[in-house]
TrEMBL record:
Keywords: Glycosyltransferase, Transferase. Transmembrane segments: none annotated. It comes from Rhodoglobus aureus. Residues 29-211 form the Glycosyltransferase subfamily 4-like N-terminal domain. It comes from the Bacteria. Residues 217-364 form the Glycosyl transferase family domain. Gene3D superfamilies: Glycogen Phosphorylase B. This is D-inositol 3-phosphate glycosyltransferase.
Amino acid sequence: MTSAVKRSPHEGKPRLRILIGADTFWPQINGAATFIARLAGGLAERGHDVHIAAPSYSNKRLGQMVEMHEGQKMTLHRIYSWRWPGHPWLRFLLPWRIKRNSAIILERVKPDVIHFQSHIVIGRGMTLEGSKRNIRLIGTNHFMPENLLDHALIVPRFMREKAGRAAWAAAERSFMRAARVTTPTRRAAEYLEENTAVRNVVSISCGINADGYNGNLEPKPDNLIVFLGRLSEEKQIDKLIRAFAILDPTLDAKLEIVGGGELEGKLRALVASLGLDERVTLTGFVEQAQLRDALQRGSVFAMPSIAELQSISTMEAMASGLPVVAANAMALPHLVHDGENGFLFEPGNINDLAEKLTRVLTMSADDVLKFKKESLAIVAAHDIERTLDTFESLYRGEEVTDPAALGKKNESAS
């Protein structure tokens, strides 16, 4: 019996058959896909019967199959999908077939609960067909219209505001069918409530197994700046490269960009045009061991993204004992407490980003150590076991209190 099962408040309760609906999943690499794999793996480890409905990654492999993720076996229901035009790996389910596909999967699985991770296609099908069968519905929002529209080559820029409103209306229809709706952070919950009629959204961290990372508090021999994540427009990695280019040469800093994505070619060209080939490394997609190695070697983690509803990669950096310089945007201030475990910079401001990176790289060893310890302390609250406990409670229809919202109410009362 694992330690996770021993410390779960749900020990001894009947196991559940859980169907997770995902518009994105392995081998696609992004925050939502990573969270789904960790959630499913943790639930399977606790003894639940976990099923995932997700796009095919090859239409030669369709239907029900057993796959291994996060060290656990789970049942995948791979649905026929198309590759997104102009994108190297993004696939999407066909909207006009999703009701029929959802009905087939639900009749086959007969789940106790459906946890849909996106309203875009899978959420619509699963909530419509699940409602007909009186199956408990839990929804989690990882969606920002800006991210989707960056990939929507067929939507001209002058129509994007209208398209964004239509996307939110679609999200509202699916999430309003759910018994409870969650997001990774309180800011993300407020964002959903601001744009839809959905209320009482619960913020539940995506969670991280901090024990899987070595919180290295030792001084680093090199001034290495690390970024980890998908190379896409909203991450604003070009701003990080340009900020790096104006750092004082006496810092002898290096930048390592870990991850791959649709902008990799453009970013490599930018590095070359700035004459930074000897000081900037783009690794492309890497295995987990290489990812953790980069975080171990880093002196500071940089996250310039303006569209993070939580940022698993930032949590991974914090669990590795790194100070963080991040954009003061969306949910990043929930993780980066300015002047405590890193610094926040004005989004898109290259000079401010360069200045904040310089501050970390020139701090005394004692001050850096304080930042490292604070990163470890903050990320400890995002333990994956707590996340699993909370979702299990939601699946069973038990009452769940949003700790962030409760704290906000107490502050107002005082």
